[in-house]
């Protein structure tokens, strides 16, 4: 069994006004990894390369240790790609989909399909095109689970969902992790989703990987530092990715709590930043 279900090595993809440059990324098997980054950071482009919907200009994409060039069918069998825009014929209902899609997968299980359709409270006889966004997401997830996908890849699954439905979906994702060695990799702008369920966070900015770390490692390294403005000078400022002045003094992000403790001792307050704080300060810091 491979430890990393996704492995990108030196992946480069260049568009006219954007590029992903030498991206190295490993996603661990058996965990939920959240994929974050501002609009246009390259998340969808990366996900498309994982799905072989887009080919890198150079570099290597390995899924389950396998290459699309030689093992496309096997890889696709093992991945469930979940999105709201259903690629299946929109006029079809779930019963038709079972008939059409099921036989395409070696490990398709009709009983499982009915189990999830029941659990997700989806109608079997209504055309998919009449489904709400949330229902389409669930339908897509039911199909992925019915062919027993080991890796579930989702591009912004919670976008546009109401808070109750969203929570429902996140609970579901957590539930399906209990069964076996599944891996979930999904992009989102809702960092609170990740505080709730993610084990690892992959953060992309302008096509570059900022970090790919466990939530625990993040809270060990990143700190939100608050203190009096008098503490700041050219040297001490170096400890921060970015800082902003507030009415009360300054607030700044560090990726090296130890160093901040050495420099400032007890004179500053160090809090645990939210993912949103980290994204905000890293983005601002990169503009300096
Ligand atoms: N086929 C393409 N041709 C040219 N440029 C493209 C193409 N696809 C994506 N881009 C550009 O690549 C950049 C990254 O887009 P991408 O959709 O991967 O970002 P994202 O992180 O998913 O953004 P969002 O969070 O807004 O969905 C954008 O500037 C986009 O305009």
From TrEMBL:
<protein>
    <submittedName>
        <fullName>ABC-2 type transport system ATP-binding protein</fullName>
    </submittedName>
</protein>
<dbReference type="Pfam" id="PF00005">
    <property type="entry name" value="ABC_tran"/>
</dbReference>
<dbReference type="InterPro" id="IPR027417">
    <property type="entry name" value="P-loop_NTPase"/>
</dbReference>
<keyword id="KW-0813">Transport</keyword>
<keyword id="KW-0547">Nucleotide-binding</keyword>
<dbReference type="GO" id="GO:0005524">
    <property type="term" value="F:ATP binding"/>
</dbReference>
<dbReference type="InterPro" id="IPR017871">
    <property type="entry name" value="ABC_transporter-like_CS"/>
</dbReference>
<dbReference type="InterPro" id="IPR003593">
    <property type="entry name" value="AAA+_ATPase"/>
</dbReference>
<dbReference type="InterPro" id="IPR051782">
    <property type="entry name" value="ABC_Transporter_VariousFunc"/>
</dbReference>
<dbReference type="GO" id="GO:0016887">
    <property type="term" value="F:ATP hydrolysis activity"/>
</dbReference>
<keyword id="KW-0067">ATP-binding</keyword>
<dbReference type="InterPro" id="IPR003439">
    <property type="entry name" value="ABC_transporter-like_ATP-bd"/>
</dbReference>
<feature type="domain" description="ABC transporter">
    <location>
        <begin position="6"/>
        <end position="231"/>
    </location>
</feature>
